[in-house]
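Researcher: Re-running this chain for the archive, since the previous output was lost when a drive failed. Same request as before.
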Amino acid sequence: MKRMSLGERIKITKRGFGILKKYCPGLAEQKALYEIIHSLQPFISIWFSARIVDELINYCRKEYIATYVISIIVINFICTVIQNILLHVCNEKESQMWNWFEKVFSDKQMSLDYDELEDVSIQKQWQEVEENLFMFGNGLGQLVWGTSVIVKVFINIFIALLMSGTLFISKSGQEMVDHPIWIVIILGCITLCGFSNYKATRKENSL
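Model: Regenerated structure tokens:
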């Protein structure tokens, strides 16, 4: 099987999302929005919890503590409600997506001439595409299910960079801990982990 270049993968993925937007409007976007809220909610809770602990230890300002407590309750409530709504809508759309995928084939069939429909090579390609989609869940199905994974990865990378940046900027007051060499070590570990994961994924996919 020919290995596709990164540019080809991006092009095909963009085309796939275009088809999803046409035949399954809103599904990918709503799954992405759900995953954004789902991924960020724990970090929001951690941030407010840290503010509450800081107030309890250092200042004990009751109005600030009350504000943080109310904020974390309200934000979590809103996030939970939105997530439940999005999850319900996405599940409904996902249960119907196979019917929408059938329409993709129907529209393509209507666009072909009779001679093309009778062409053996086209029929073989048609069969392979249907088998990959409906039997193995590849193609558009993987885009739908992979949207959550893609968003989660980007959110985790963003949060990791944000937390790393905060770690590098803040000072502990201890010369050894504040030494710039730790920046190089941490970035090296992150790079090594990412490279190892990439190699492992490529090896697994090549089996």
